[in-house]
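Re: that chain you flagged

S.,

Sorry for the slow reply, it's been a week of failed gels. I finally had a moment to sit down with the sequence you sent. For the record, here it is as I used it:
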Amino acid sequence: MSAVIPFEKRRFRSAARHYLAGRPAYAPALVRRVVQLTGLGRAARVMDLGCGPGQLALAFAPFAGEVLAVDPEPEMLRIAREAAAAAGIGLGVLEASAEEIGPGLGRFDLVAIGRAFHWMDRARVLLRLDSIIEPGGAIALFSTRHPELPDNAWLAAYDALIDRYAAGDEARRLRKSADWPSHEAVLLDSPFARIEAVAVLERRLTPIERFVDRALSLSSTSAARIGERSLELAAALRAALAPFAAEGMIREVVESRAVLAWRPAPAEAD
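Prediction finished late last night. Pasting the structure tokens below so you have them in one place:
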């Protein structure tokens, strides 16, 4: 099975406006831990690759000298610019796919990738990153998930609805397949084969409406993909999650995770 999802231009166009409201934020403690582990300093250059609305770009800006946010979706970049301006953060932005980056952008100490690596030609992108990451620099793959805990009892109802409305999305089927190589497997076969994973768990209270945004921020269940059924999905989510809510709020435990990858030291590579 191919480990590359065919590129679909503007796939996230309608999902973009729901992203910041719906997707769980990465734990600030995790960002600080990544800064420590990578030795990031005030003179460092950071790239947020596949940046979406710039969650990681803005999170790393206080710890670096320069941050460049890269994404192929113009609407995502517009939101990232607005968020940076509202926070008083200077942010460079570039409309480009991950497969288009190269040495012309200069060298970087850290390339952070959030919920986007699976959309890329991962092996090809890692070779391109090898040409722009400093000798001691790193890649950090960020993700969030919901561990099997009592606080996350709502998850089965949420996932069942997403599975129903996302049925027929070929990209999602490929990514969920048992044959799909994990990010770690791809990294181990790349120049960045020294890997360390860190995680932070947080208990959060989230309004039900944010779960509606979460569903509509997924490209497989975005309004652009499922059309008027998005209104039906929103109503179904509100009904399915209501039993798990108290005063309109749902308790969830979010695990923010980062997989860090460096080039092996010469002794390790032998």
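What I noticed first: The CA atoms of residues 31 and 60 lie 7 Å apart.

Talk soon,
D.
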